[in-house]
Structures are given as C-alpha cells and as structure tokens.
Amino acid sequence: MNIVTHWWLFDMAPVSGVLRAVFYTGLLVLCIVDFPTPLQAAKIMDRTERVFYTPVLAMRLLGLRWVSPRVLSVVAKLTIAMWVAAAAGFFQPVTGVLTFLGFAFLHMVNAGALGAHHSKHSALYALLAMCFSVSYDFSLDGLLAQYVNWPLLVPDQSAFTSGFAPKLLLLVLSYIMFAGGVSKLLYGGLGWLNGDALRFYVKYSPSRWPFMTKLLVGSPVLCRVLASLTVLIELLAPVAIFVPSWRIPLVVCWIWLHIGIMCVMRPMYLVQMWCYLLLIVPSLTDHSSTTSAVSLGGLFTTVGMLACVVLITVLIRQSEEWPFTSVPMYSNGLTNGAVRAPSESELYERAVRAQRNQHRAWQRAWLPVDAMEEIVVRSTDDGKKHRLFQLMLENKVAKFVRWPQYAKVVRATAIADLAAKAADGVELGVCGPEYPATRLLHEVALIFKNAIPDWDRYDRIELVCRTDSGSVVIASVPLGTQEVRGSGDPQQRSESMRVEQYGELQDRLMS
After folding, report:
1. For residue range 466-496, what is the model confidence (pLDDT) as tens digits?
2. Engineering a disulfide at 113: which of 48, 161, 248, 397 sits with its beta carbon 3.0 to 4.6 angstroms away?
3. C-alpha distances in angstroms, 158 versus 17, 97, 100, 162, 168?
4. Which keywords, in A-to-Z order, does the entry hold (predicted)?
C-alpha cells in the first residue's frame, strides 16, 4: 500500500456502528424539524411561483424544469425510509447510497427555490461520505449475519471499513470554511477585515440575542477583532486536513463561529455543526492501520484525489452551481462604512462583465438593505414607489418566493437586460418583449394582480437599479395590460419559456 492510499484510508478512525446510528438519527431529526431542508422540498415548491423557480444545471441536464410537490412528497418519504434503514445498519452500503441519492435529488430541486441556503450543503456532503462507510458492529446486518446467515456485501478487509469516509468529509468541510475566508477577501477586501461589513450585517439582520447585537453594533473595535479572527480561522481550515493535532481545535473554532452567527444573524448552522460529529469522534478514537493492500483502496484514493481537483476548480472559478458552494453569505465589503452603489454610467459595463463570469462586477445582495436592484410598483395617486416583495409580505401572500431566490432572479434579470441593451446600443429604460426585464415584469404583474385585492391602487410595475445618484428605471410595465386569471395553461407555457431562458443565463452567471 502506498503512502497516499494509507493517508486517505487510515489517517482517521473508521465510523463505528454506534457513531453511524447516532449520526444518521440526529441528522434525520434535524432535517425534519429545521426549515428549510430538502426533506421539506414539497412544501417549499408548493409556495414558490414558477416564474421565480430556476432549475439548476444538473436538473436541466436530466430534462427537468419543475417537479410537482406530490412527487417530492413521495421521494421524501422513500428517502426517510432508506435513512432509517441506513441508521440501523441494514443492507449496507446500499441503503446509505439510496439515502444520499434521495436527499441529493430533493436538495437539487430545492436549490432552484431557495436562492442561497448554504448550511444544508454539509448534510449532502456528509451523506455522500457515508456512502463509503460500512460498519457491522451495532447493525442489523451484523445481527442477521450472526443468527440467520445473512449475506454481508462488504468483506472485512475493505476500504469501506476504513477511515476514508470521515477523511473525505473533512476535506469538503475544510474547503467550505476556507472558501468562506477567500471570498471575504475577494468580495469584501479591507471592508471585511476592518469590521465595517460585519457590523453592517449584524445591524440589519434579525437577532436572536439583542444584547450581543447591541454590543457589536456599538463597538467598531470588537467587530474589527472578530472579523479578522473569522477570516483567520477560515483561512487556516486546510491545516485540519494535514495536521491531526490542529484538527479538533479548528473544528471547535468553526463551531463557535456558527454559534456566533446564530446569535446575531438569521442563518442557523445546526445541521453543519452536527456533521462535525463525523470529524470529532474519528479524530479522538484510537485505531489500527495496516500496510497490506485492502480491497478497493486504489479506487477510494482516486475518488479522494478527484474530489480535491474538483474543489480547487470550483474555488478558482468561484462557482455556485449545484452541488457546490464557494461564495458564503455576508461576504460583501463596504466603502466608508456604507454600501457603494455604482454610477449610472457604470451599469452597462458592470452588467457585461458580470455576464462574462466576473462575479465581483455586480454585487450580490444578502439582505434587502444591500440589494442593487429591486422590483417596485407605483401608486396611482402620488407615484410613490413600493417594494414588491414587501407588499406581498404585508398582504401575507402564501405563494410567492423566498427573498434570497427573489433577489437572485431579479439580479440575474437586471444583468441580462442591461447586457442585451448594451449590445443593442439602446438606452436603459427601453422596454420590449425582446428584453428580459420586460418579460419578467409582465409575468410578475399578473401574479401581483391575482394576489393583491386592491392592486388597482397601483398603475405601474418597474425594475429599478440602485446608483449613486438614485434609482434608475431599467424596465417599466403598466399594470392594466395583464388579464387577471388563475394558473391556466397560457401562463404555465409563458413561465416555462422564461425558465428555459433563465436557465441559459444562470449557466453563464453561476458556473
């Protein structure tokens, strides 16, 4: 056995039967009670308007543009059944693989409706890692083999019984943390290290611990220290892969980062923290290794090396294409303590650069306060602008879209619209069915009129972009031109066409 294979298979202890049962059970409970998770994909899709749904590339390659909530409900139930079997150690590793495939399908479908929800990627990667682990102690397989001559699919001397699974998960979770530090420097720069960005996002985020929020907002020095420590801890993450003595201290630091975020911001990283169990226990467990060859050792080593190449490529390209993530939430920087809006003369140039995969050319919003684009409706009486999403929220519209996905679609549409107008050499506010913003507004206007009883108080719907001199109109559509109707076939066909157009755009912007 060569040194590389030995490192992949025996640097960490294998996942024991007890750890397998505890991990699977705890993760299942968290994915059922937490929201949103892939197991709630049916509910999420049922609450999402199709005009805002953006199927990921993997889904489109499968020929899917939309999956009905009924189908998702069936897939979720089958996945849970396989999950329970995997936790019990029954028919390993088949049930583990089926659990991963079901969860991955639900996760993939969810990705087109959530916009950004990075905390559940860790569960996907953990279930993938567990596909490479088999433990017959504390398992139904072992019990049945002892009493009824049950066939075991994996021999004792196999890579499946090695420490490859926790090692693979350590690689991926370390990458996630490292990518967070890299992105903060790329997107935020000094605006992140000086604490201004952290203070800004804490100030405008819903807080679970108001005292801590007040303390951070009132102390620029404390924010500067915490911001610098955050980036340092994230950039040190790869050390955990290669230096065992640093592994537990770094994982503990990651947990404290997640707890801090949970106290003063909206994201809850309970699922990701639970996945660290597969890193902590094998790192603290004494284990034996062998120098003799084991079955499938070379294949598992190849899988691990291929994972390294893929993750490095994703990081270099800053790709957010499912199932990868490289741009963490709240990674934008500030200029003089405030969000810097571009000048009107920059809009075309920025949009063209963004379409050429220069992601930093057009800032991505993590909160409404730092959004560079918005859909608004104008009052008939005084012409006052009202944010569309806020109006839908105030009217308690049950079926619309989650804000991160809404912001993602509006941003991508604004970029595509401006890039198209730049190519045609026309002015910003020119409207027409050949431009993405106009097409989107016509469909959103119909949703608005069906959802808001007093929609006739408003006469226009507009997509506007924020600049240093105020908002500029990119597209504008009168509200009186759409026929109010339900979700009939004509609308569904229109939405399907827009999904395909958006899919092509998403490939350029996110891959």
Report:
1. 888 888 999 999 987 655 554 333 343 344 4
2. 48
3. 16, 17, 21, 7, 16
4. Membrane, Transmembrane, Transmembrane helix
